[in-house]
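2024-03-11 09:14:02 DEBUG pipeline.ingest accepted 1 chain
2024-03-11 09:14:02 DEBUG pipeline.ingest length=297
2024-03-11 09:14:03 DEBUG pipeline.predict start
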Amino acid sequence: MKMTERAQQLVRTRTPFVHATVVRAQQPTSAHPGDEAILLQDGTIEGFVGGQCAQNSVRKAALGALQSHESVLLRVLPDGDLQFPEAPGAAVVVNPCLSGGALEIFLEPQFPAPLVRICGATPIADALAEMCELVGFGVRRSVAGDDSLDSLADTTAMVIASHGGPEAEMIRAALDAGVGYIGLVASRIRGASILDELGLTDAERARVRTPAGLPIGAKTSAEIAVSIVAQVIQAIRKGGLAVTPRSANVVVEALDPVCGMSVTVGPDTPRLTIDDVDHWFCSSGCRTSFAAAKTGS
């Protein structure tokens, strides 16, 4: 599968990843300008951006890019030559096991668009769905009585615009799922009454916006939709609302016992188990050296 097709597949499944592209390569590195790879949250590398030693440095930088949500121009060097323009978004890694040459690799993290769950089949809900799609948000619709609220883990924002029905139950489900933005389309008095019946803590009550939307004097369904989308954007851009949940995968690092390099443990990281103890390596060469020393061969 081509990298573009794989990237599109990951976008469709709302899977965060890093797209790595070799922009410059100095011989005798095995990578060439234009080589590409996709790196997933568990450390998996699909594609080619250099040998095993280089891949370990790229993997570590990519995982950092997923955490910071920032692109990185990474230069991988085999020695202490650190002559590289210092600039925001640039980083230098000295890789002790690199056989020679140098690599410059652009790492671009890709994240799913904010996902807004809209509950209700009202004119405001319809207008909100259209407005969310216009600004590039993902949209999922839910109506009373369906079971779509069973999974809210990937939801950035949930807006209840049903004007009745199990609104309290929907709010409770969103709170329990840790949804960052919860909006209830209701008058100030009716919204307060619904929250009162839930018996929320002060912290939980503060997480529910009702009336939903910024106070811009909106009257029509379209205007109310604009105010709600604006409030979600404000929460993301200025309030620190997480667009996607943090990775549940725990990134593990180990020390290569041969070269002393810090190794990010992934599915394809070289490993050797001796006496029920796992040893991790930056490359198969270090693994072979370690095995030979242990066996005396």
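2024-03-11 09:14:41 DEBUG pipeline.report The chain has three domains: 3-110, 115-237, 253-295.
2024-03-11 09:14:41 DEBUG pipeline.predict end
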